[in-house]
Write a structure and sequence with these properties.
This is DUF58 domain-containing protein. 37% of the residues lie in helices and 30% in strands. The chain is α/β, with parallel strands linked by helices. The protein starts with a helix and ends with a helix.
Length: 412
């Protein structure tokens, strides 16, 4: 075979391939034959999953076989796996979408693709969505009524009976009966009425509660897929709602390298809505926290004894020295709750499943971190600070329980 013959054969082969490709494209449905419509939520609670409903429709019979989807969104929005059936002219997909941060994000586009008739090409099409989605603090425990039920049961149900007579706020007079504490008898009024009457008191209300949130770079660390600052905000809002039901005044204070937002204590839903708006607007700071300046500034803002709930973090006992000293000063006139979060990953490091040399070295380092962490917490407890070092999923209920216990014991 001559060189010319070889070139001719090659041209024929290429021409044949070109015809096959052309035939494949001609026999394949165009990308405009499939359309998508998205029904998306306007806001998603941080750390929770909502539903993104995507409806696909075909202008030419059934949807193409092998149809696949991809979603273009902000990095903070994650769309999970989904299942659907494409044998009909239309299909509705319920795709889970998770928000991992606070802020304003967008669901940009829906990309869908399917193979050509002979499988030589992928037909790609897209639908522009540009739907804004707000990532907001998680207040599901409040909306579900869980916190309302818990607080009302503790303060106005069983606990109300248990601590009746041990409070400092006068409620009413009632006839003294057998079994009541004789110390409750009001002797002056008993003499006036000619029979024994007892004073009935309730736990005092209108205390000042301050949610003090550290927004430094250490609070940006993710635990269980969510930054510490977001878990702190969620717990602060839950406790704010509980304190509002309990009749107390709640304020908000945030800081990083310097003091930031301060909202004076106010009652009930007014405080909750204001704190929710300010907390949602907090940016993710990348500077180191200045506990000395922040706590000294807060001490100057408060003119009466308050319960201060401090959400913060530290690396080791050395870096926590200034924090401990300034909390000691603040604790002289106020009652403090220090809230820290346990990292489940650290527990898995200190308890390795396979004890090889590398895992043992990591376990020793992790054990040292836990030891120094416990030293700092023990120092705070000796100062009289209530310390909560809990797992992320237990933060809100533990904090609400600590607040109710302090309120019932009238420690504020």
């Amino acid at each position: 075979m001559t060189q010319a013959d070889g070139e001719f054969v090659l041209q024929v082969i290429w021409a044949g391939l070109a015809l096959i490709c052309l035939a494949d494209l001609m026999l394949t449905r165009s990308r405009r034959s499939v359309q998508a419509q998205a029904d998306l939520p306007k806001q998603i609670f941080v750390g929770t999953t909502a539903k993104a409903q995507i409806t696909l429709s075909s202008t030419k019979g059934a949807l193409p076989a092998g149809l696949g989807l991809r979603f273009q969104t902000s990095p903070e929005l994650q769309v999970g796996a989904f299942q659907w059936d494409n044998t009909q002219p239309t299909a509705t997909i319920d795709a889970p979408i998770t928000c991992n941060a606070r802020g304003k994000f967008t669901f940009d586009r829906v990309w869908f693709f399917w193979p050509s008739r002979f499988g030589l090409f992928d037909i790609i099409s897209t639908t522009k969505v540009d739907h804004p989605i707000d990532g907001v603090p998680n207040i599901q425990p409040v909306l579900s009524g869980q916190i309302t039920t818990l607080v009302q049961a503790q303060l106005f149900g069983v606990k109300d009976t248990s601590f009746r007579g041990e409070g400092s706020e006068f409620h009413q007079l009632r006839d003294f009966t057998t079994g009541m504490d004789p110390r409750l008898i009001d002797w002056k009024r008993s003499a006036r009425h000619g029979s024994l009457v007892a004073r009935e008191t309730h736990v005092e209300q209108n205390h000042q509660i301050i949610m003090c949130v550290d927004n430094g770079y250490l609070m940006r660390e993710q635990i269980g897929g969510l930054p510490k600052i977001d878990r702190a905000i969620n717990a602060a809002l839950t406790t704010t709602w509980a304190a509002g039901i309990g009749g107390d005044l709640v304020g908000f204070y945030s800081f990083d390298s310097r003091p930031r937002v301060f909202l004076p204590p106010s009652p009930g839903r007014k405080a909750f809505n204001r704190i929710r708006a300010e907390a949602a607007a907090l940016s993710y700071s990348s500077v180191e926290s200045n506990h000395t300046l922040a706590l000294a500034h807060l001490n100057g803002l408060l003119n009466r004894r308050s319960l201060i709930i401090v959400f913060s973090d530290f690396v080791d006992s050395i870096t926590a020295e200034l924090m401990v000293e300034n909390m000691a000063v603040l604790n002289r006139h106020h009652l403090l709750i220090f809230v820290a979060l346990k990292d489940p990953a650290l527990h898995s490091i200190t308890n390795p499943a396979t004890p090889n040399l590398n895992n043992v070295a990591m376990a020793v380092a992790g054990g040292q971190i836990e030891k120094e962490r416990q030293i700092v917490l023990d120092r705070l407890r000796r100062l009289g600070v209530v310390c909560l070092d809990v797992a992320p999923d237990q933060l809100s209920p533990e904090l609400v329980s600590a607040y109710l216990d302090i309120k019932a014991r009238e420690l504020i």
